[in-house]
Write a structure and sequence with these properties.
It is built from 14 helices and 22 strands. By secondary structure, the chain is an alpha+beta fold.
Amino acid sequence: MDLFVIHGIVEEMKKEIIGGFITKIYQMNRTDLLFRLRRQGEEKQLVISTHPDFQRLHLTEKKYINPMIPPRFCTYLRKHITGARIADISQDPCERIVRIGLQKMMDAGIIGNLVLIVEVVSKASNVLLLDGEKILDCLHFRRAEDGAARPAAPGLVYSRLPSTDRWSPNEVTVERMEEIFHLPAGERWPALVQKISGVSPLIAREIEFGNDGTASGTWQNFRRLFERYEKGNFEPRIATLLSDKKVLCPFILKSLGPAAEELFSSMNQAADNYYFEVVWQRKMVEQKQAMGKRLRQLLHRLQKRRENLLLDQEKFEKDLALKSYGEILTSNYPKLKKGMREVEALDFRQDPPRSVLIPLEEALDPAANVQRYFKRYKKAKRGIEFSLERISETEQEIAYLDSLLFQVEEAGDDEALGAIREELEEAKILSISKKQKMTREKKETSLPVRRFRSTEGLEIYCGKHNVGNEYLLRKMARGNDLWFHAQGTPGSHVLLKVSAKEPGFKSILEAAAIAAYYSRGKNSTRLPVDYTEVKNLRRPKGARPGFVIYSQQKTIFVKPEIERISNLKIENN
């Protein structure tokens, strides 16, 4: 979190939470805390995070899931500061350190003064509860023996993070700016970050941008920005760059270039919206990567198994020819003697009979040599049947996992990804701990399908994932409805609801386009889509969710077009 953003947030909090009381404390995970505050009958929420990439503090209106069993630090805070009054909040000058002064009624009516320190300093971020200068407890223990630059643990005296040789903003002169300005253009803004306390890469680029090409001009640009900082003259906004990257800005930053901007009435509101989205996106990416990695591992194993089964099948198919050796030996039985390594026998099945050289086992008598070939033939026959069955099962598993991998890659929200995860857990592909089972809350969820309406007014439904595909088949599909699926590639099931009259070709074409778009082949220019009546679908016993066998299908070639499909989509689904 930027120094400027922190300053704006703290100044707003002075008006918002001083005089309020802490009513609830939660710890969502290893790095994030949530405080519920009540002031003059109004409830507010304060989120504090020490995440190495998203360290921050701000008021929030978002909903967060809280664990049923509070971690250690949360338990300590609940005991010692629940009910405490917020007496003050301040930011150390030009530092990313915030102090929240607390007053707590102690025994015998004595009011105790405590301080909650929030250090928003990248990977060293921490939250500490102090009584005077003594650390009562902290979110992250930092020990000297572990290489910490500043120890932090209960019982120690609090000391600020080690000072650096950076200049305070008030110590930056034109002469010092000239030291930086003499560097090559691409090295100036990183030098600003390294040399001046509190300057982030975002602000450093703005300082360097748009000056008149002199050190004096750069210094004036620097002073102009820090005067805004000192006065708290902020215009909070979220800028969306051409690359779709979002940036939280305290005011207009010309160095960002062309950007779409969303303005906010307060810095807390801007930070709340920005971090909720970027943290959610990171969480989604991490979950997708973890689930995708597991699925790719299993797919690799299954593909290796299929390769081995195909090799076995090839070997068994060769051994099927051994039946003819047994038959030839039977017809030439008088020639066979124990101890023979091979025999030249006539194959009477051919006209005229042809001489064949057949290997024999010396240790076996004639009857055993004949039976050996018939046994190997029968074994090969059984082996082929077994291999074909295993190959079919393996290919179904590959198709199933491949469809799940596609759904993970395409999942657009927590609900869809959560449904896929539950399916993976039920299929024993992902493990679930007893603690997760206990703490998993039942949430109201929307229908697991997307809704569309064709230009002819017919309802079209598309499964969001396998649970949605199964829902379509079990709850929504009727015999004459039309079912669509992209041919030969993972994708969603699509259902065109049919009324009393036959659907027009336009509706069929639109339903096929939806099936094509919500498949792995959505970037194709011409994708085949199969469709058939629901009564022609068959779900094998014990099949995975969403798996069907279909017949009497027709195939239509379509081009997936997002604009066309968006126009058909019914909002809020």
